[in-house]
Amino acid sequence: MSTIGCRLREERERFGLNQTDFGAFGGVQKQAQLKYEKDERQPDAAYLAAIASMGADVLYILTGMRNENTAFSPTELAYLRNCRALPTSEARDAGLKMIVSLREAYGIKWGSEESKQPETPRFLNPSDPS
After folding, report:
1. From CA 61, how far away is CA 113, in angstroms rounded?
2. Residue that wins the pLDDT comparison between 10 and 103
3. DSSP 8-state class, residue 86
4. Looking at the whole model, is its pTM more than 0.85?
5. CB within 8 Å of 61: residues ≥ 6 apart
6. In the chain, what's the furthest Cα-to-Cα distance?
7. pLDDT at site 61
8. Domains and CATH numbers, the chain
9. pLDDT at site 118
10. Are 69 and 75 in contact (CB under 8 A)?
């Protein structure tokens, strides 16, 4: 069975960081990072929040279940952050179309998932009278 420490190490390795550098992102020294990865000590909420802000999948670290919305590399995280910073849904849609076009130019086939937008629940959409 995979432990929190094992999954934490996987996340650190996914970023290509050593224990010193990854620990620094979480606000801890290398020794604390080592103990977390060996399951000798459990990380606290401040540490988990700090590594989440750099893109670590904290849900995966804690539960073993991957969050499908997690970036798998610093480059993917940069894509997500830049997309989320765009001011309008039209701008975000244009960015998506650009990336889809690039993928298609490389001949990579995929379903129509990228064009599906999640439905907004009615209680979040004040213009929906129902």
Report:
1. 27
2. 10
3. S
4. no
5. 4, 7, 8, 11, 48
6. 57
7. 96
8. 4-63 (1.10.260.40)
9. 45
10. no
The CA distances from residue 62 to 43, 51, 119, 121, in Å, are 10, 13, 29, 28
> Two tokens at 21?
């550098």
How many beta carbons lie within 10 A of that of residue 81, not counting itself?
A: 11
11-59 confidence digits (pLDDT tens): 999 889 999 999 999 999 999 999 999 999 999 999 999 999 888 999 9
Q: 10: how many CB neighbours lie within 10 A of its CB?
A: 14
Backbone angles phi, psi at 10, to 5 degrees: -60, -45
Q: One-letter amino acid identity for 86?
A: L
Q: Give the 3-state secondary structure of 8-77.
A: HHHHHHHCCCCHHHHHHHCCCCHHHHHHHHCCCCCCCHHHHHHHHHCCCCHHHHHHCCCCCCCCCCHHHH
Q: Using one digit for the tens of pLDDT, what is the confidence trace for 49-69? A: 999 988 899 999 999 998 776
